[in-house]
Amino acid sequence: MNMDFKRKLAIPMEVKEMYPLTGNIGKIKEERDAEIQSIFTGKSNKMILIIGPCSADREDSVLDYVERLAGVQEKVRDKILIIPRIYTNKPRTTGDGYKGLLHQPDPEARPDMFKGIIAIRKLHMEVALRTGFTCADEMLYPENHKYLDDLLAYVAVGARSVEDQQHRLTASGIEVPAGMKNPTSGDLRIMMNSIHAAQSSHTFVYRGWEATSQGNPFAHAILRGYTNSKGEHHPNYHYEDIIRVCDEYDKRPELVNPAVIVDANHENSGKDPLQQPRIVKEVLANCRYSERIARIVKGFMIESYIEDGRQEINGGCYGKSITDACLGWDKSERLIYEIAELL
After folding, report:
1. Which of 28, 35, 93, 338 is the most buried (most CB within 10 A)?
2. Sign of the alpha-carbon torsion through 310, 311, 313, 319
3. Is residue 54 part of a domain?
4. What percentage of the chain exceeds 70 in pLDDT?
5. Count: domains in the chain
6. 156 found inside a domain
7. What is the residue range of 152's domain?
8. Which carries the bigger pLDDT value, residue 4 or residue 220?
9. Cβ contact 287:297 at 8 Å
10. How far apart are CA 314 and CA 317, in angstroms?
11. Looking at residue 111, what is its pLDDT?
């Protein structure tokens, strides 16, 4: 093979032995998992808000951001359950560019995967200890999920990964909600097929083992917009789009806990993060108008950081994204309170 094998990395069990859960993290996760599941089953009417940076690029600014979120959560806890985005793997359209904390604990240094594995585990643990939050991460690499499976509250499968068999089968063995995004083409059938696969039991090869999954009853849809053959952005958060997802679920009575999370950025916003508040408010208005939409929409995904916009890796602005542009803190805080008022 035309590649250089540098070293064999520690397996998840070894990393967990080196960095075991401390304090009351286990209890925090258990309680949070139960509360999140109650929203997906319809026992709770709270709205889920998966919010945070496009990528978790620096420990200091990410912790600063999440500690700010913790203060807001206390004020809206009766209506909103916040799940911070701590995305430590970053998919790249062309393969070029910063690939996340897992690859580069220091964005300006060379990749170091072992340091990255340690860095992502320590960051998720530190967030839980400081704030009582368990967080969301994207499952970019299915074989890496076990490094964080005892810490995560939510897993997203991206638009480029949702058609991949290994992602679907691994999602079927995950114990927390797994959001399956619509593909970049916007084909809802592909997304629905991925939900069916993730909710089903499978036997497959995972990390060198013959594994049998039990199926994930909390696998669900994420609408993130799409691009057409000309590369033009098209949203799919409007009334008709969500009704179409309701219809797709109705065609598949074998699926349980029908649910939609609306991703307010990416193609839904035309990659303009300042549009996210408007998008969220439109969806909430449609929830008030339609009982079908109100039943199926369980929450939103928002890209948010301390500063508006984005910068290059060496930009030097604290708390500003080095990947996709984000909504700044002041606007994000205001939006959370506005959501609570509208619920």
Report:
1. 28
2. negative
3. yes
4. 99
5. 1
6. yes
7. 12-342
8. 220
9. yes
10. 9
11. 86
CA distance 94 to 72: 37
Specify the CATH number for the domain of residue 235: 3.20.20.70
| Three-class secondary structure assignment of the chain | CCCCCCCCCCCHHHHHHHCCCCCCHHHHHHHHHHHHHHHHCCCCCCEEEEEECCCCCCHHHHHHHHHHHHHHHHHHCCCEEEEEECCCCCCCCCCCCCCCCCCCCCCCCCCCHHHHHHHHHHHHHHHHHHHCCCEEEECCCHHHHHHCCCCEEEEEECCCCCCCHHHHHHHCCCCCCEEEECCCCCCHHHHHHHHHHHHCCCEEEECCEEEECCCCCCCEEEECCEECCCCCEECCCCHHHHHHHHHHHHCCCCCCCCCEEEECCHHHCCCCHHHHHHHHHHHHHHHHHCHHHHHHEEEEEEEECCCCEECCCCCCCCCCECCCCEECHHHHHHHHHHHHHHC
Q: What is the pLDDT of residue 98?
A: 83
What tokens does 244 get?
């179409």
Q: How far apart are CA 69 and CA 71, in angstroms?
A: 5
Residue 4 in domain: no
Is 134 inside a domain boundary? yes
Q: Which tokens hold the place of 190?
A: 């592909």
